[in-house]
Amino acid sequence: MRRILLSACLAVLAAAAAARAQECDRSDDSQQMMNICAGEDYQAADARLNKAYQDLIGSDDADAKRLLQAAQRAWIGFRDAECAHTTAASQGGSIHAMAVSQCLTRLTNERIKQLAASANCEEGDVSCGGSDEVEGDEVQ
């Protein structure tokens, strides 16, 4: 498990390094460029997540801030493990970096929606801000 997580992290870092060396050109459909573009998409989503998190944590009291920090750390661990698991079949292939970046982007965008929903909760509303609803779909 540790090796899979390490591999996923290395793939993302490699894609990020490649993205710094070359900018995304969406008209280029080579695998290398798709990897670069997917890496840039993830970096943009991660920046939006960090802003949403900072906005939310700045408005919390000390206890709520501590709980949000713990939740966010746990969520990051989940996200990374989930993406390592779901992209394991492509490991070693040229598409792997793109698959990891796309997974990270998708889960990060979902988390941004969760944090935004939490930011709009009124005090005492226990049904607000949970992850039971994503994009209007309720878990039954």
Description:
The chain has one domain (2-116): Substrate Binding Domain Of Dnak, Chain:A, Domain 2 (Up-down Bundle), CATH 1.20.1270. 69% of the residues lie in helices and 3% in strands. It is built from 4 helices and 2 strands, in the order ααααββ. A hairpin with a 2-residue loop joins β1 and β2. The longest helix is centred in the first third of the chain and has 28 residues, at 31-58.
Summarize the structure.
With 140 residues, the protein is mostly helical. The protein is 69% helix and 3% strand.
Question: What would CATH call the class?
Answer: Mainly Alpha
**Structural class estimated from helices and strands:** mainly alpha
Helix content range: 55-70%
The biggest beta sheet reads:
2 strands, antiparallel
Average pLDDT, rounded to a whole number, is: 84
Counted beta strands: 2
Number of helices: 4
User: How far apart lie the N and C ends?
Assistant: 31 Å
Instruction: Examine the coordinates and then state which fold CATH places here, giving the name of the CATH topology.
Output: Substrate Binding Domain Of Dnak, Chain:A, Domain 2
Major beta sheet, strand line-up: 1-2
